Predict the 3D structure of the following.
Amino acid sequence: MNWVTFLVLFPLIPAVLLLIFRSYFLQKWIVLLSSALIAIGAIALAFQYMGYGGTYLIIESNVADNFVTVGEIVIALVFLYVCRNLPIKKYWIPLIIILQYVPVIFYDISGKIPETSRYIYIDDLSIIMALIIAIIGTLITIYTVPYMKLYHEEHPEFKDHRHHFIAAVFLFFFAMFGIIFSNTITWIYFFWEITTLCSFIMIGYSRTKEAEHNSFRALWMLLLGGLAFAMAILYATNICHTVELQQLVTLNKAVVMLPILLICFAGMNKAALFPFGSWLLGAMVAPTPSSALLHSSTMVKAGVYIVLRCSPVLIGTPSGAVVAIIGGVSFIMCSAIAIAQSDAKKVLAYSTIAYLGLIVLLAGIGTNFTLWVALLLIVFHAIAKALMFLSVGTVDQQLGSKDIEDMHGLISRMPLVALVMVIGLGGMVLAPFGLIISKIAAIEALTLRSPIFPAIVIFGGSLMLFFYTKWMGTIISVSSENPPIRTRGIGLQWIALGGLSVLMLVSLLAYPWIGRYWIEPLYGWNPMMTEDVELTIIIMLILVLVPLASFLVRWKNLIRTEPYLCGSNVKESKYQYRSSLGSPTTWAFGNYYMKKFFSEEKLFKGTVIGSIILWVLMFFMENL
Amino acid sequence: MSIFSIFLVIVFLIIAPILGGLIAGADRIITARMQGRVGPPIFQPFYDVLKLFGKENLVVNRFHVDYVACFLIFIVLAGALFFGGANLLLAVFALIVAGVFIVLAAYCTNSPYALIGAERELLQMLAAEPMILLAPVGLYLATGSFNVYTIAGAEHAPIFCLPGVFIAFTYVLTIKLRKSPFDLSTSHHAHQELAKGLTTEFAGPSLALFEIAHWYETIFLLAMIFLFFGTHWIWGIIITAFIYLIEIFIDNINARIKWELMLASAWGVTLILGVGNLIVLFFINNS
């Protein structure tokens, strides 16, 4: 059996099994086994196809295509079904569904869609995506099982239907593998809409008012992307006479620009770039593993994946430049807004949008070098973000808060979880770690094009450094004010937290080789990989290990003392001083949030309006 | 790596702290003269550091010494990459990582004054970093390379293409050197400091490490100024020295300002002079 078929179809089995068997024990083993199988499948696939360039899988029979048509009808009906209880003033949500599905299904059934047998395309890009989904995604799934158990112990008011949730996760894998391996945009569209449905299920999981509201907002925003996709299918069928994505990107730019821009629209919409950022921000109400899944390995990565696929058309065009600027606006503004947030999940959400903006910026420029960097960013961001979300989830369950201020002194209270978090944060900001190296490469690459883009990357990067370092500092502050927490019921979660930490460290060390053997065959040689730079990177990596080692060395002759409190320390406590009236007073410290400059209220609206203008401009750029 | 670059790196490792210490000593004498005092001998910074090494190593907890050590290591690394002729961006990023470590060191102590210092140091990084990173981009546009040796070997001094970048860079240099009016995180002017900011909890040897790192940092930043003059190294030395004199002068005639003004002005200068210069240069190059 072919590994591609296995990866796409296999996740459906655990999804169905999980709906039937609901005991914790069975759930755990189904998830563990099928996760292992999916990961093995992806690795086997990588060995089979890696480095062979693009390969098509020919599917001669029409059975699969007919299944997709039937599937589309089913999905359309499911969408309409979930909208059944909507108030009448939200009539436009079902309207968007009908508008996109009626023509697409009509085209499918009437056979207007151009015939093809090359339904599946595999190259190094899809293999890298498959590995991300299969390894990081399944680690998150393993984490989900114990998390949901604790979640329902903590929230007895919510109805326990966690089997739906975990089944939706596997359905998600089915759709994601479908997106990355499909070659025809009709198939991609089918899987695309399944991911929308899955995220709708996940966001609305707790069935609270806020969750319902946010899930419907996510639904209509994502359906707009679907609508753009449907329009791309119709246009490609009628004007370009092909629905194969690999065909489309090689056609004359003037002909395909519109459908490609429509697909990019769908991609950027899925990647939650502004003005559509609010669906991803609203997704925070869901249980944390779903955020980890949406933000790191699935969903938003499908969005940037499709933009990467389209980038050969965008390169050097005015529209491509506008796409890049749309990404840049999201990158800078989200980094700025994240400074003023103290909710850990919100900070992570904004930083996700920021990173996706950066990736789209690179894809919009579209030179080999920037694509190379974009792909590296996708890999490192997936690992680091999954790690961060999961550790925030664990801290939230143990500490009862996901406010960064409450994590003050976490290193003394939950040393291991804090260490995992520091690895994740380090992966985001510190230079020897992946993301900053990719950022160096980004600046190098963009300097070739125009100085505006490096300026965007530099300013956004500085803002990002600020809030991540602030967070890291807050965690590592050594404090004995609160007693250590006796962690309970983490157990299985350690597989994910430990696995991702190891993955993070390994991929950092293996970074030059990932770049050389995986990404270079895809996008060609690039100046970052000259011997000299590789040498310096290796030097830097050694220097990551030196500080780590220095923590194991005990300095001699250290004399413990109390923190400086103007000499009016209280003997019994480090956290109290004697005030002017002589009574012990506890000091407190809060981080800077600089709401004066970076608050959500000040920046959000302007960003949305500015981005809408840019999105409109994107479509008219070619005609100007 | 050539023999020459290894030689330069070794020279840097040995000479930089000596030169940095001497600059600090000269700084103190000049400052004293401006204030109508005689001032300490020029070797005073060395005496201070030696004395610090002889003192007890008082710590709030055992970790912050490690972070200070990492700060020193990364500053030295930044300088070594620079003088070893590596990619200039990499050297600047090493400098930024060093900055992160010193902030973490202050956070780690969990003392209220140090925490405020850490936040303010972060703010200073936020204000200065865009320009510190834009300078290599400007040098790239002027010389076509990020390689330090190639830039230093440019026949046509980059400063003629990059006057705006140069001015903006000297502006944020004040922030990086923690000179007044931008000495928010820690100041050597006792009259405007809350305790000792960032370094409140550093004592004895760990404070000595911080001082030595500061000498290296000063040399690295001045070397970046020097880079703007390409092969015209005599002019480079004269103007770099002159810039440092101006920094001392500014340091003495200003009082500390609020962070809002620092951030807004630094970003404003970076955007208008720095990015503006780059855009003009880009269009001249491409037309």
In short: Strands of chain B lie at 57-59.
